Amino acid sequence: MRSRLFLLLCFFLILLTSCDERSDSSDQSNSVSSNQDDKTTIQTEDSREMANSGKEQTEQKAEETEVPKADTYDVDQRKVIYTADTRIEVKDLQKKIATLESLIIDYDGYIVESSRSNDTKENNRTGFITARVPQTNFKPFMDEVESGEGKLLSSNISGQDVTEEYVDLESRLQSKKVVEKRLLAFMEQAEKTEDLLAISEDLAEVQEEIEQITGRMNYLQNKADLATVHIEIQENYVSIEDGNLNTWEATKQQFIKSINFLLKVISNVFVFIAGNMPVLILISVLGWLGWIFIRKWVKQNHKEK
């Protein structure tokens, strides 16, 4: 009986010991798995921090890259946008417009806009031309326009120096391209979907900024390469005011003015008669009837005498 109790007690002790060992091993396995998850999370966060720090370092290095300053540019290299406004008075509008169109082509330019208008009261016409001319040909072109046929009424030339803005855009573009290259490298190294999405968003933003900067640079370059010229041509048939008119020109002016005066008088008389025709007809009829009545009355009085 005692031996049985002893064996039963030993069996319970062995069973308790095995249960303790299993619980310890399960706790150890859980702790190991949790440690592995923590390590994985830490590694992911570290990789993202490294990517962000790499991007910041890339931008900083790109900004520190030497780019020529606006002050170091030569006069010929500066970006200046020229605009000219000119008014000319001529005797023959059609001929002057044809001359200007040919002149624009000769100086490698092109016409942006051309229009004409008529002034019926003054019997004069006006033409407008907007042209783009290469900056290298701008000065000789303007000299020919101002010294050509007709009287120069006014001329204004203005210039806008955009060199500083262009250099700043050039520096920003270089910086963004370096960042773009680095982000592409990060994208090739990324293994997780979350990292790829984050890098793709940054890359799309950088590429959009590159397109905007490039578009602005192209606009400034085009404006600086080609000057804009606005020309207004006024036609005057009678005369172009001048302090040194000879006798023949003065006589011609007076003759034309006399003809214009006669035409104006005839025109006014015609307008008066045509416009008041009903009243004039009525007055004429009444006058005719009155004349007949008076004539008969005079004849009757003459017979009675």
TrEMBL record:
Residues 196-223 form a coiled coil. The chain crosses the membrane at residues 269-294. Keywords: Coiled coil, Membrane, Signal, Transmembrane, Transmembrane helix. Residues 78-291 form the DUF4349 domain. InterPro entries: DUF4349. Residues 22-70 are annotated as: Disordered. Residues 36-49, 56-70 have a biased composition (Basic and acidic residues). Residues 26-35 have a biased composition (Low complexity). Residues 1-22 form the signal peptide. It holds the Pfam family DUF4349. It comes from the Bacteria. This is DUF4349 domain-containing protein. The lineage of its organism: Bacteria, Bacillati, Bacillota, Bacilli, Bacillales.
